[in-house]
Every structure is written in C-alpha cells, then in structure tokens.
Amino acid sequence: MAETMTALRKTRGEAGAELCQIPVPEPAGNQVLVKVEATSICGTDLSLYNWNEWARSRIKDDELPRTLGHEFAGEVLQVGDCVSRIKVGDFVSAETHIPCFNCPACLNRQFHICGNLKILSLDTEGCFAQYALVPEVVCWVNERTIPPEIACLQEPLGNAVYCALVEPVTGKTVLILGDGPTGLLATAVCKVAGAAYVATVGQQKYRLEIARQFGADRTINQAEVGDEGVEERVRQDLEKFYEGRYGVDVVLEMVGAEETVNMALNLVRKGGRISAFGITKKLKIEMNYNDGIVFKGVDIRGINGRIMFDTWYLMKNLLTSGKLDIAPILTHKMPLAEFEEGFRLMNDWPRQCGKVVFLPWG
Prior knowledge:
The protein is α/β, with parallel strands linked by helices and 362 residues long. Helix content is 30%, strand content 26%. The protein folds into two domains: 4-153 and 326-359, Quinone Oxidoreductase, Chain A, domain 1, CATH 3.90.180.10; 159-302, Rossmann fold, CATH 3.40.50.720. The protein has helices at 43-50, 53-58, 104-107, 148-151, 154-165, 181-192, 205-213, 222-237, 258-267, 289-294, 310-320, 339-347; strands at 4-10, 18-23, 31-40, 66-67, 71-79, 91-94, 97-98, 118-119, 131-135, 139-141, 173-177, 197-202, 218-221, 248-253, 268-276, 299-302, 330-335, 355-359. The strands form four sheets. Strands 3, 5, 6, 9, 10, 17 and 18 form a seven-stranded mixed sheet that branches. Helix 10 (289-294) links the parallel strand 15 and strand 16 (299-302). Helix 5 crosses helix 6 (181-192), helix 5 packs across helix 11 (310-320) and helix 6 (181-192) packs parallel to helix 7 (205-213). The longest helix has 16 residues, at 222-237. The model has no long low-confidence stretch (mean pLDDT 96).
C-alpha cells in the first residue's frame, strides 16, 4: 500500500478546498482503515466548501486543515488492535454520528442523539480521500450486491427512512415539503412502504422530475404556484380520501423555512404526525402554536440522523431485496480530481443535479 494518498481538504478559512497529498493514516485501537470506493457530497460538505456562517461557527480556523466528506463506501484494509466486529475485506459504509456511550441518551440506547456527539468530518478527518480512518463502532457492513455509488448514499437515505418511517405510513396520505436529496429519497421510501398518496413540494423542476421517477402521486412547484397553490392542489387531491376536508395524515418537513413549517401545521390533519427534519436558518420562527399544534393534537417528531442501527437494517433489507431502487437520485459521478465541477453543480440555482458522487480512484 502507498505511503501517501490524495485527499480533498479544507486548508484555509475561506471558500474552496484543495487536493493534497497526505500520509495514509494507520489504524490504532478501535479504528479501521477503509479504501474509499465512492463518496458523495452532502449539504454539510457544501457549507464547509462555501465556508458560510454556519461552517465558520462549527469549525474554527485553528482546527484546519481537515479532510472533507462523510458519506462513503469502501473495503476495509486494516484494523486496529481492539477491533473485533469488523474484518479485513468487509465492504462498509459508516454512520456519521459517533456516540460516547456514557451520557443519559446513550444509556437509553438513543445513540443518535448522544449528548457528547461527534460527527465524521466535522470532529474528525473525513472521507473525500483514497483512504479513510473511522471508528469500528460506526461501521456498517454492506452486501457486495449493492454498488459502491449506491452504498455511499445510505447516510442520507437513512435520514429519509427514519423521517418517513418513524411511524408507519402504509395506507396513509403523506405530504413531503422539500425537494432536496433527502426529501426525494423520502418520496421513494413512502411509496415502497405503501403510502396511499404522496405529494412532494419543491422549487426545482429538475428535482421534482426525480420525485416523479420515485413514484410521487403529485409534484408541486412552490415557486410557480405559491403557498396557496400548494394547499389548493393538495386538498383537491385528497377529496377521494376522508382527509379531503381535514388535511394529510403525515407531513415530512424537510426544509426548515418558516413558511414550510407553517404550511406543515396548516395541512396536517387533527391527530396527524409531522416529522421535523429541516434545520431553520433562524434561531426563532413564528408559528400558529395554538391552532397548529395544541388544538390539533399533532404529534411532532424531531428527526436527527438515523437510529443506530435499526434504520440501517431497514435500509439493508429494502436495498438488497430490490424493493427500493434509489438510482434516480444519483445523477453525477466523477473523479475526485473534478471536485470543483461537483461543487459547482451543488451550488448552482436552479439545481440541475441530485446526488454527486466522487470516485477517489477514478
């Protein structure tokens, strides 16, 4: 094995990143060394690349340089002395939330919301590289029947599975607010899980077409019809269900904007469920608390990451059974050396991509 590797690193506190040659890390203790076969861009990576306000608050200049990326799939090449579950040759992906196992949440098996949570690439080195070093505890062994470019998308797919299936959606009407990759994947998950009706709302024609490929019963371009137009179309569709007068059973809020949060509260039926996944840019937002939540008896479920490892078992079964095909979300594959083009696609507006995957050995 080579002594050095190519890695895409954040070297300075400004927009952009650089390809660097750095030493291949050595696994120790509970660490495993993975040869990265595919790795995909996440919204977090985009924030770090653009070095926006959130990125500057999350990683300080004196913590740089740092290898970016946290969604990947690859083969285990070496393991540390304390590793027992993961074996050399395993084809793995990784849960990006690294728990402490000692806080009250962890002791209650809520590892995904650990009180001392660390996150790959934010608190450790990332995986936009030819090799990645990760703790054994977050490694998930994949079936080799899953292509690397699909296996590396399980982190965002897990968000969608958790968000959609935190409670059953079989036979229910579902409204998905947001056409980002997780919203699109949630569309596919809800259809596979037997939802009676799925409407996906967004602002990007390109991405709403992907939602249609995933089987959405209705796609609505909010930028074209406005908030009132969204409500009108959803309620019209629901006339054939008893909720026609009342609203949808389930709303997946994947945006975090004040407008979409209030749209979720307005369109969910009494006694319905809202999965709150979107992150607001403002610390405080205005909402109709009384009529939207209290008097409706709405169940709001906060969604953070994935359940370790319940969500991963669901993903594995859905993917290996062939019942869930997420290929439409993968719109671009390119060598890691072409990272600038990948981030350009992710930054462009309107969006003309789904998920962008880098091939470090391409």
